[in-house]
Amino acid sequence: MNCYLLLPFMLGIPLLWPCLGATENSQTKKVQQPVGSHLRVKRGWVWNQFFVPEEMNTTSHHVGRLRSDLDHGNNSFQYKLLGAGAGSTFIIDERTGDIYAIQKLDREERSLYILRAQVIDITTGRAVEPESEFVIKVSDINDNEPKFLDEPYEAIVPEMSPEGTLVIQVTASDADDPSSGNNARLLYSLLQGQPYFSVEPTTGVIRISSKMDRELQDEYWVIIQAKDMIGQPGALSGTTSVLIKLSDVNDNKPIFKESLYRLTVSESAPTGTSIGTIMAYDNDIGENAEMDYSIEEDDSQTFDIITNHETQEGIVILKKKVNFEHQNHYGIRAKVKNHHVDEQLMKYHTEASTTFIKIQVEDVDEPPLFLLPYYIFEIFEETPQGSFVGVVSATDPDNRKSPIRYSITRSKVFNIDDNGTITTTNSLDREISAWYNLSITATEKYNIEQISSIPVYVQVLNINDHAPEFSQYYESYVCENAGSGQVIQTISAVDRDESIEEHHFYFNLSVEDTNSSSFTIIDNQDNTAVILTNRTGFNLQEEPIFYISILIADNGIPSLTSTNTLTIHVCDCDDSGSTQTCQYQELMLSMGFKTEVIIAILICIMVIFGFIFLTLGLKQRRKQILFPEKSEDFRENIFRYDDEGGGEEDTEAFDVAALRSSTIMRERKTRKTTSAEIRSLYRQSLQVGPDSAIFRKFILEKLEEADTDPCAPPFDSLQTYAFEGTGSLAGSLSSLESAVSDQDESYDYLNELGPRFKRLACMFGSAVQSNN
User: Any idea where the Cadherin domain is (predicted)?
Assistant: First the structure.
């Protein structure tokens, strides 16, 4: 039995397929295979495949027909479709075997379906033939446009790059089947970016087609289109944008926009002062815009330019001090160039940009200026007061030429007038001071704050005003038994004067000593001389000491001569000629001299102590005369009497008045029993002071005695008095005036009067207890 599958037209070719399910043992009718079909025999089954176009928009699209060659058209067979997609994507007419697609097919989602078909006899319910598989392939159509998957695109290329320089490559992809015609064959084109860029049609490589300047435009947007079907009609397309940035190259030199700069500088500005800035501009960026400034023309070598690498400014600084009176304006030319320049770009930097700078010097009030930095003068010593030393001169460097006043700082030896003439105020002595260091100050009269000072050195020249003298004190000795011609002393001389040549001294004896001297002198011609004996034998008893006058002359002009006395002691020497006896005598003389000094000091000390004792004695005696009342006793006196009185009624036995004070008579007061009243009276007794009439009377009496005292000193003196009052307001505690004895009285209040009355409280308290 044979079965056939009738397919719809594919590419305009009608297809007739044999029935699926035929096997090698099946009696099938062999037919000629149509073009585009595929049939192969495997394991006794007949495999068939056919194509179904995708993107079918109808809800039910006829795909093909399955028909068994045993089916005679009597509707006794039932066709069934099994497998993935059966019933959902594909359905089959059970009576006719027609297969329909009920869903839209997309090859990019699923390109083939493997289904199984089966034919069943309706009357018996059995399969007429065994199941057979077949394949339905979905054929591709151009339904996907090209897409650029690596978006966004960005590229950087140096400016001024030559034509043909590779920029970037863009690539698009098409989801259609590349093996199905030209659906996936792409063609690239440039929609935007002419005339600077071009794209290769088949590769998508973007290249430069014209030079570009970053300073004119630093970035470009290029639009690339990709079309499938190699651009044929009906092709689909996709686009992408590419941002192309131009990187900077050093193709621009820095340029001064100002051809002239005007700056000012004060003449008082120190070196290194910044006086202004200049600025050049470079269209490049980054390190390509870094600049270096320099001086191109400056004959005076007064200024310099340094570069501020942060702001790319040129700073004009003062290299040397300027003087308005010497030159009040300057003109210099500055240039600028890039710091980093590649060799291939040197053509853009052949000539550096320059600018001219005019600098005006500002005048300031300057201090006086001396003609010399220092002065050195010379003057001979011993010149009279007011002698001329030298002249200093200072001028006002400003245009107004202020007069100058001069002065000398801390000098009592020299003076200077308004003309700068220095004179002496005292006679000079080179031996005291050979040089004088002066400080001369010049002050403007119009502006006393403008002051200048310079050092002046005065050298005092020597004149021969000091005669030579012994270089030291000599103690010479000669033995009694010395022979004639014996050397007893070598002497030398010094001269405080300064000599142009080397000092040379001449030694001689005075005329008197030459004629009658026992000694002679020999000049050694080396500024020394020796003293020799001129006779034999000396007598210690007759002539113990000799005084020799020696004349010493110098080689100065004029020559000066001095007379120096040499003392020679005669000694009692031993046989060996030793002078120990003379040295012992000298020591004794020295000790004697010291003893006399000590005695004199002791006498002075005794005189001083005697004067001190005398002074103290006079002061003590004067005190006794000034204060005779201090010998009196101001206490209350107690007199003893041995005779027996006649009792209280007897007032004849003794004088009661002697027991009372001569100044005031105390009245008998009744003793109070309350302690509060006693304390009040105690406080009142302490109030007696300078305001009391008794005290004032006492002071007046003592003042009169001091004024009338003939022994009082003739100067102010301090008078000291000891005054005892007449008594306390509290009454006396003595029993002499007590007429009665209050035995029942309580003395407990004494304990309240403080520690001074503690002993009294104990005594009276004990007496009361014993009486009781």
Answer: 68-148, 149-256, 257-370, 371-470, 470-581
> Structure pTM?
0.45
- Cis check for the bond before 195: say yes or no (omega within 30 of 0): yes
Confidence of residue 507 (pLDDT cuts 50, 70, 90): very high
Report the SS3 class of residue 346: helix
What are the structural domains, with CATH classification, of the chain?
50-139 (2.60.40.60), 147-247 (2.60.40.60), 255-362 (2.60.40.60), 369-461 (2.60.40.60), 469-590 (2.60.40.60)
Cα separation, 719 vs 723, whole angstroms: 13
CA distance 366 to 324: 10
3-state secondary structure 158-181: ECCCCCCCEEEECCEECCCCCCCC
Dihedral angle of Cα 269, 270, 272, 275, to the nearest 10 degrees: 0
- Both tokens assigned to 421: 């003439």
Distance CA 156, CA 248 (A): 10
Place of tokens 């200026």: 369
CA-based nearest residue to 673, from 609, 738, 588, 744: 744
pLDDT band at 724 (very low <50, low <70, confident <90, very high): low
Strands 260-266 and 353-362: parallel
Backbone phi, psi, residue 173, to 5°: -130, 150
Cβ partners under 8 Å of residue 412, min gap 6: 425, 426
Q: What does the alpha-carbon distance between residue 772 and residue 770 come to, in Å, rounded to a whole number?
A: 5
- Confidence grade of residue 743 (pLDDT, cut at 50, 70, 90): low
The kind and range of the H/E element at 610 are helix 580-626
| Angle ∠(233,237,238) on CA atoms, nearest 5 | 170
* Beta carbons of 142 and 228 less than 8 angstroms apart: yes
